[in-house]
């Protein structure tokens, strides 16, 4: 008797949004980190996710990418439910998580190769793509250095290479520019713009409003686990700068005398 092979899971649904989140909830003890988020990220968009510290961005992205199970709600990647069909959804998704923990006793080249082989690519493709990615990210000289000896910015870049190696359709990046030098950041932006021009979708979380305004075509402002505004960047900022609009939506500017004992002048 032959064992029936498992039915293949669903593939990407033509015409579906890159990511669709419906009623996502997550609490940690008493703290409600994400309070029923609905968000549709159109295919082919460069989407920014902004919000104050502790707003729920990382929690939302973790639930959207299969890293953290929601208490309620669904997350679809090109129409595939990431929690019902994780293997199929993750095939079309590349993720750079926040505070990523890598197998850092591998060299940079070994780590990207490992990520590619895990995704089921053949060795020749992985070797050639690893070379391309290391060159594009300025890591060629460090290809044989152990990742544990990389700087914070180099670690970000090698993690990005791992997220890109299987040429995903959707790329989700939590704070991709943190600790990255300006030249490398410009290179990464260029790679991401080319990726979007080629039909991919990028979702980035960032605290740098100016960067999001220049780089992204869509944005969602999240605060206290809710979406306060979402849509095209020009519609959300409505004639102001994104930073002004952000402060207006989120509030929280602390004005006044500040901390008296930090003043060093005696007059
Ligand atoms: N594992 C956890 N255990 C307990 N509380 C958590 C956990 N992860 C997140 N939280 C809490 O959930 C809330 C949302 O956190 P989250 O990391 O999603 O915010 P964020 O918008 O990404 O913040 P930041 O911009 O500072 O990175 C915060 O109040 C945080 O303390």
UniProtKB/TrEMBL annotation:
<keyword id="KW-0046">Antibiotic resistance</keyword>
<keyword id="KW-0547">Nucleotide-binding</keyword>
<dbReference type="Pfam" id="PF00005">
    <property type="entry name" value="ABC_tran"/>
</dbReference>
<protein>
    <submittedName>
        <fullName>ABC transporter ATP-binding protein</fullName>
    </submittedName>
</protein>
<feature type="domain" description="ABC transporter">
    <location>
        <begin position="19"/>
        <end position="249"/>
    </location>
</feature>
<keyword id="KW-0067">ATP-binding</keyword>
<keyword id="KW-0813">Transport</keyword>
<dbReference type="InterPro" id="IPR003439">
    <property type="entry name" value="ABC_transporter-like_ATP-bd"/>
</dbReference>
<dbReference type="InterPro" id="IPR027417">
    <property type="entry name" value="P-loop_NTPase"/>
</dbReference>
<dbReference type="InterPro" id="IPR050763">
    <property type="entry name" value="ABC_transporter_ATP-binding"/>
</dbReference>
<dbReference type="GO" id="GO:0005524">
    <property type="term" value="F:ATP binding"/>
</dbReference>
<dbReference type="InterPro" id="IPR003593">
    <property type="entry name" value="AAA+_ATPase"/>
</dbReference>
